[in-house]
Structures are given as structure tokens and as C-alpha cells.
Amino acid sequence: MPDYSHEEAILGGRNGLVAGCDEAGRGPLAGPVVAAAVVLPLNVCIDGLNDSKALTEKRRETLFEKIHDQALAVSIASQSAETIDHINIRQASLAAMRIALNQLPVFPDAALFDGRDVPPGLPRALATKAIIGGDGKSMSIAAASIIAKVTRDHMLISLDRQHTEYGFASHKGYGSAKAHQRAIEVHGGINRVHRMSFSPFRQSDLF
Question: What is the pLDDT of residues 28-81, one digit of tens each?
């Protein structure tokens, strides 16, 4: 279960603010990638906080509200499917995390990122660390993973109302869903909604 040991380590015994950053939506065929940055008080325990992928949708929604209530700062940023096609999903994910961090209403002393990479272009004075599996190790990153995931889910539910034939509300744009695969076969892809650089759209006539 996540705790604050990584936050305490990066501060090195000093008082300060630590932001956790994570993204949601690297793998889907449709919709944006969404990143969140969250600054939690290091003495706050939010019951059940964990990697968003380990939680039910109902539990994520409950924790989403609790995080907003108890966090010192929350920021969200996204990169569109069109941008993902233009700069690739890795660069789009890093850009979304950088923007989310830079938009925080209070700027932290340090930042922890889920994954292997620290986004480029951050202030030199900011202490940073990338943690593989960080959403299951750091409370701040776990909080960011939930904010990013729930926000993106809400965006796909909204998108579903515009394109009801694709079923975005149920599968959130993932290509593994058979209903999504069938809709693509029948209707093709939607420009600026589907990621045309991803298979099966790449070098195909499905859009």
C-alpha cells in the first residue's frame, strides 16, 4: 500500500510540499491522455487510497471527492488525440504531467512522477524523482492517479453522448473492448477523437 516514505525521502528531513503526478489514458485508441498533480498534507491519511487500477469505479469516485476535499492543491491537464498523433503518446503524457504540475496554485518543493521519466522543462530548483509503480508506493502519486483516471472517465462519458454508436461510456476508448472493435469496423474512426497513429488506424482506410 502507498505511504509517504518517498515524499519524506525527497524532502530529506526538511519541511516542504511534495506533488505527486500521474497520467491516465496512455493505452486507449480514443480520447485524450489526462494528467494530474496533487499536493497532499503529509500527515493526512485517506482511507483506501491506492493505485487507481486496483480500485473499483465506485471506490475511485468516492476517493476522487475525498482527495479534492483534503488536498492542498490539485491540477489537471490533458493532451488531445490529435496531439498524441503529432508528438506520440510518451511525449504527450510527459507534456500533460508538466502542464499539470506547472498549473498548481501552490508550487511544491519537490515532485514525484509515476513511471520511468521525469518530464523535461521543469524548474531546476524543483527536486524530482520518477518511481516505477509509484501509484502503488506513494500516497501523492496514488492520489494523482485517481484524479487523472476519474477525470478522463468523465470526459469519455461526455464524449459518448456525442458519439453513441461507439460506447465510450462503457469501455473508455480502450481497443480491447469488442463493442469498440465492432463499432470501428462498421463506422471507422473519428478524426480528433480516435488516435490515428495507433493500430488499427495507422496505414488503414478506417477513417
Answer: 999 999 999 999 999 999 988 887 888 899 999 999 999 999 999 999 999 999
Using CA atoms, how far apart are residues 124 and 76, in angstroms rounded to an integer? 22
pLDDT band at 198 (very low <50, low <70, confident <90, very high): very high
Strand partners, 114: 131
pTM: 0.94
Q: Please give the radius of gyration of the chain, using alpha carbons only, rounded to the nearest integer.
A: 17
Q: What are phi and psi of 20, to 5 degrees?
A: -100, 135
Distance separating alpha carbons of residues 156 and 142, to the nearest angstrom: 21
Q: What CA–CA distance (Å, rounded) separates 117 from 58?
A: 30
CB atoms within 10 A of CB 68: 12
Number of residues written out for the chain: 207
- Report the C-alpha gap between 98 and 116 in whole angstroms: 14
Q: Coil, strand, or helix at residue 81?
A: helix
Q: DSSP alpha helices (H): ranges in 71-189? A: 81-87, 89-102, 139-162, 168-171, 178-187
Averaged confidence pLDDT in the chain: 94
Amino acid code (one letter) for 164: T
Grid coordinates given for 37: 498533480
Positive or negative: CA dihedral 52, 55, 58, 64: negative
